[in-house]
Design goal:
With 339 residues, this protein is α/β, with parallel strands linked by helices. Helix content is 60%, strand content 9%.
Length: 339
């Protein structure tokens, strides 16, 4: 039986938990395929693999490629050559879904006969990973079910020595989205800036999250919805002045427009209000504000906007120009398409 089917049937554990169990027990594989959209869990998995295989300090034998700019021969050469001053090396290919078909084809013989001194990790965060039949390849999915986000958020809070009330949990998710990396970052900030006590309440989020950051994020989103270029540029400058990372700003824009698309589909399908709110994980008040955006965008508008957002995401990750340049350029492109 192919190993990817074994992984799916073997247990009810998440891909992350299963991967950590294997690595902790010293079960290190020569080739991994990671799928799923939870970059926080993927990064934690990579850190665990690196700590087990290389130790915390060995960066020389930890090599990272990006699929949109990588050549198959270069990846193959790095995976096949001996490590430097070590018995092991790790080669990571992020955005492997962006590898051209011919570049991925170069790696196929390696999957059958991988180097025993290397672990090659291919990360497919968008779309489906290609079907690879080799039993030398292990596949782990880092997607979190809708019902598990709140539970994982509580676990993250506990690791910081805190608890978070159910209402505060839903409030934070409704503001930030379901990306665990963003949720973790907000929990860290709440642990530093909130008032005394170990339980995070809705009031803490209102004070330290929404006002400090999301007010400006939603000012930016609202300005884009209203097609108000001047207001959007001002909101972007305010976020930049706060030291907000461009990728963080962009991830929230992407999340918001995905939410608009999903809400639009549910509304058009005449989904009952209670089911719609449950699916979107929103309060009636939050949905009211979201519903105003549904009227302003056609599916074609959202598709064009998402294309620009994802192109900007790619440029932010591989470009060497100042990253704020790409967000500023994005605003120009968003407003030029709306004319």
């Amino acid at each position: 039986m192919p190993i990817n089917k074994m992984n799916q049937k073997k247990s009810s554990k998440s891909g992350y938990d299963e991967f950590i169990d294997k690595v902790t027990n010293g079960d290190i594989n020569p080739v991994y395929i990671f799928t799923g959209d939870q970059s926080h869990l993927i990064d934690k998995a990579l850190s665990a693999l690196k700590a087990k295989v290389l130790g915390a300090q060995d960066d020389m034998n930890y090599i990272v490629f990006h699929g949109e700019a990588a050549a198959g021969e270069e990846i193959l050469e790095n995976a096949s050559t001996m490590p430097m001053f070590s018995s092991k090396k790790i080669v990571v290919v992020r955005n492997a879904d962006k590898l051209k078909a011919k570049e991925l084809a170069v790696l196929e013989p390696y999957f059958e006969s991988p180097s025993p001194s290397a672990s090659l990790v291919l990360i497919f965060t968008e779309g489906k990973a290609p079907k690879i039949k080799s039993k030398k390849v292990q596949k782990f999915n880092f997607t979190v079910g809708k019902d598990n986000t709140a539970s994982l958020l509580r676990d993250e809070a506990q690791k910081l020595g805190l608890t978070i009330s159910p209402r505060a949990t839903q409030t934070l998710i409704s503001l930030v989205g379901e990306d665990l990396k963003e949720l973790h970052n907000e929990l860290v900030k709440l642990s530093i800036y909130r008032s005394e006590g170990k339980t995070i309440e809705t009031e803490d989020i209102e004070k330290h999250t929404r006002r400090a950051k999301f007010g400006d994020i939603f000012t930016l989103i609202n300005a884009i919805s209203k097609k108000n270029k001047r207001e959007a540029q001002k909101a972007l400058l305010d976020l930049e002045a706060q030291g907000e990372e461009p990728l963080s700003v962009l991830s929230r824009l992407i999340w918001r427009f995905r939410l608009i698309w999903k809400a639009k589909e549910l509304t058009d399908n005449k989904t009952p209000k209670a089911d719609l709110l449950k699916e979107l994980k929103m309060s009636p008040g939050a949905f009211y504000y979201l519903s105003q955006d549904l009227k302003k965008y056609s599916y074609q508008d959202i598709a064009r906007t998402m294309k620009l957002l994802l192109e900007c995401d790619k440029k932010l990750k591989i470009s060497y120009v100042p990253r704020n340049f790409h967000l500023t350029k994005l605003m120009t492109e968003l407003f030029s398409q709306s004319k």
